[in-house]
Design brief:
- The structure holds 2 protein chains of 2 kinds.
- Chain A folds into 2 domains: 264 residues, P-loop containing nucleotide triphosphate hydrolases (Rossmann fold, 3-Layer(aba) Sandwich), CATH 3.40.50.300; 77 residues, CBS domain Like, CATH 3.90.1280.20.
- Chain A is α/β, with parallel strands linked by helices.
- The longest helix of chain A has 18 residues.
- Chain A has a 6-stranded mixed beta sheet, with helices on both faces. A 4-stranded antiparallel beta sheet of chain A has the order 2-1-4-5, with helices on both faces.
- In chain A, 44% of the residues are buried.
- Chain B is mostly helical.
- Chain B has a single domain, classed as MetI-like (MetI-like fold, Orthogonal Bundle).
- Chain B is flat.
- Classes of the chains: A alpha/beta, B mainly alpha.
- At the A-B interface, α4, β6 and α6 of A face α9 and α10 of B.
Chain lengths: 357, 275
């Protein structure tokens, strides 16, 4: 499903708010001023600072940050609801800043759907009319757009509610309609701006799983904003962590949990369960090291697991077989060994190398 | 200072006289159109017998609000006829309807433009403040000078006081579109026209309906005052009763005005709630 085709290419994008933002931007480009300098010298707020990211086809890219981290600004730069102060955003290879008003509307209508935290369902319209809104704006005839809207309502399980009004629906159902509305126009990219933040924890988890499944089934790409690291890990193929307008780390959930870039990220990931996140290849020790520790024993006699087995599965193997080590085999050859010690360190989120140092 | 004031006054006077001398054909045409509109509405209202109008009003009241309001409204209208004021009541209604139609034809488009263009809104606000703070009698004077005695003058003065609230509330409604819906419109690629018709206007409708209701109420107030310039209707009845100290007639006519005002106020409010 995932390919290397880059759908959104965000290159060193800055957004500076304030009356003297032009001057501020010039001095960023010329003198390399920091965020604090900009606030002091120009009284301008840096919303997004030098953000670079790529979203590939079929990928769910999460941007995680607390409020004020610039994540909502960043997502709005991706469909030019906010103009970047500096840098470029390319969508399917086309620089958004070069598009005229008509071409920009066209790009938003056909290629980039958006789902909002506030849902923003038009209260005067039925669920069906809301779901068909994007196509209505594109001038698609009533029958055709209603058919498409019914199909996307079916995907989110709301076919029976199409003639109701938004106020008759629960929060979770309303957000499903918001997702259906974005899907009706069949865009390649869906921008999700904290869509589930206002929902109850149970409903939220349910929608997270449904969203991930649906996005993968339909082969869509998504940029998903959240302030909840658990949500980012559940949904995202890759995660970017933002703080004060800067992307401080980007990688898979496992990379971020195992190798936090700084103390800020480390504090964030401290409470995250590693059971399903960390894989054998992150907690295994080299075969030679194991031989030394076990006085030259051969790992061939140990139970075998793949490098992609998660900690939960490894614990299952150890407790099930009674062996205190597992050989990690990749394509017939043994690439490492997971010991109970390395497994315990992995549960705590410390790779063997750092624990040894 | 004093000489400046007298100069200013005489310039205004001269201008008014000059207008009535040289542009008489324009004002005659205006008067013809206004009186034609008034006569047309009045003819329609007087076409059915009073009880038919009362029953129709009662049915509308029942559908829009409740059966109690419908019956009450029909009985109250019939009472206006019983007091011998049916003709005057319908004349007043015709004045209010004609004035409101003209006022809304001006204020709704202007209010929409002001809502979309903050600079126009800023320019209009002091003008509307001025119109609303001056005593309403003032508008009768130049209208009399140019249009003479009669319903045309009453209409012009009534339109002037009925326009401001509808402009203000329409503009407010257009400006008050919640930000997330404007963002939605942009994100789905809506054009400016689609943004207005599909997003801004539906959210503005309740505020616009409140503006229409307020305009109607202002029109009622002015139509009574306009009795002084021979508007006809209940206003003139009251004005006559005041001059002859005929308390009974003035109470009857006031009752009829209250009935009309209440009916139209509640019905337009019901329409506003539905939208």
């Amino acid at each position: 499903m995932e390919s290397n085709e880059v759908l959104i290419d965000c290159q060193s994008v800055w957004k500076v708010f304030g009356e003297r933002s032009r001057e501020a931007i010039r001095s960023i480009a010329e003198r390399g001023l920091t965020k604090r300098d900009i606030l002091g010298e120009y009284n301008c707020v840096v919303g997004v600072s030098d953000a670079t990211l790529q979203v590939r086809r079929g990928e769910i890219f999460c941007i995680m940050g607390l409020s004020g981290s610039g994540k909502s600004t960043l997502i709005r730069l991706l469909n030019r609801l906010i103009e970047p102060s500096l840098g470029r955003v390319l969508v399917k290879g086309r620089d958004l800043s070069t598009l005229n008003a008509g071409a920009l509307r066209e790009t938003r209508a056909r290629h980039i759907g958006m789902v909002f935290q506030s849902v923003a369902l038009l209260p005067q319209r039925t669920v069906l009319e809301n779901a068909a809104f994007g196509l209505e704006v594109q001038g698609v005839g009533r029958d055709e757009r209603n058919r498409a809207a019914e199909a996307s309502l079916a995907k989110v399980g709301l076919s029976d509610w199409k003639n109701r009004y938004p106020r008759e629906l629960s929060g979770g159902m309303q957000q499903r309609v918001g997702l259906a509305r974005a899907l009706t126009s069949d865009p390649e990219i869906i921008l999700m701006d904290e869509p589930f933040s206002a929902l109850d924890p149970l409903i939220r988890r349910q929608l997270q799983d449904e969203f991930r499944q649906l996005t993968k089934d339909l082969g869509k790409s998504a940029v998903f904003i959240t302030h909840d690291l658990d949500e980012a890990i559940r949904i995202g193929d890759r995660i970017a962590i933002m703080k004060d307008g800067v992307i401080i780390q980007e990688g898979t959930a496992e990379q971020i949990v195992m190798n936090p870039a700084d103390q800020y990220v480390a504090d964030f990931v401290a409470g995250i369960s590693r059971l399903h996140l960390v894989k054998a290849h992150s907690v295994m020790i080299p075969v030679d090291q194991w031989r030394l520790q076990s006085h030259g024993a051969s790992p061939d006699g140990l139970p075998h697991c793949s490098p992609e087995a998660d900690i939960d599965a490894l614990i299952g193997t150890i407790t099930g077989t009674g062996s205190d080590a597992i050989a990690i085999a990749d394509g017939g050859s043994i690439v490492g060994v997971v010991t109970t010690r390395s497994l315990l360190l992995g549960v705590r989120g410390e790779p063997e190398i750092r624990a040894a140092a | 200072m004093e000489s400046f004031v007298t100069t200013f006054d005489s310039v205004v006077d001269d201008a008014l006289f000059w207008l009535s001398d040289h542009a008489a054909f324009v004002f005659d045409a205006v008067r013809l159109v206004l009186e034609g509109l008034y006569d047309g509405v009045l003819w329609l209202l007087m076409l059915p017998p009073f009880w038919a109008v009362a029953v129709i009003a009662g049915l509308i009241g029942w559908r829009a609000l409740s059966w109690g309001f419908g019956i009450g409204g029909a009985v109250a209208l019939a009472a206006c006829a019983a007091m011998g004021l049916w003709g005057e009541t319908m004349q007043t209604l015709a004045l209010v309807v004609a004035a409101s139609v003209i006022a809304l034809a001006i204020s709704l488009p202007l209010g929409v433009l002001a809502g979309l263009m903050p600079r126009l809104d800023r320019a209009l606000t002091p003008a509307l403040d001025l119109v609303q703070t001056l005593p309403p009698y003032i508008y009768l004077l130049p209208a009399i000078a140019l249009l003479g005695f009669g319903p045309a003058t009453a209409l012009v003065a009534t339109v002037i006081v009925a326009v401001p609230p509808a402009i203000r509330l329409t503009s407010l409604g257009i400006r008050q579109t919640p930000g997330e819906f404007l963002e939605l419109g942009q994100a789905v690629g809506a054009s400016r026209a689609q943004m207005f018709w599909k997003i801004r206007l539906p959210f503005a409708v309740p505020s616009i309906m409140a503006g229409i209701n307020q305009s109607l109420m202002m029109a009622f107030g002015m139509v009574v005052i306009a009795g002084i310039v021979g508007s006809g209707g209940l206003g003139e009845t009251i004005y006559g009763a005041i001059r002859t100290l005929d308390i009974a007639t003035s109470i009857n006519a006031s009752t009829a005005i209250v009935v009309l005002t209440m009916l139209l106020d509640r019905l337009t409010q019901a329409a506003a709630r539905r939208s």
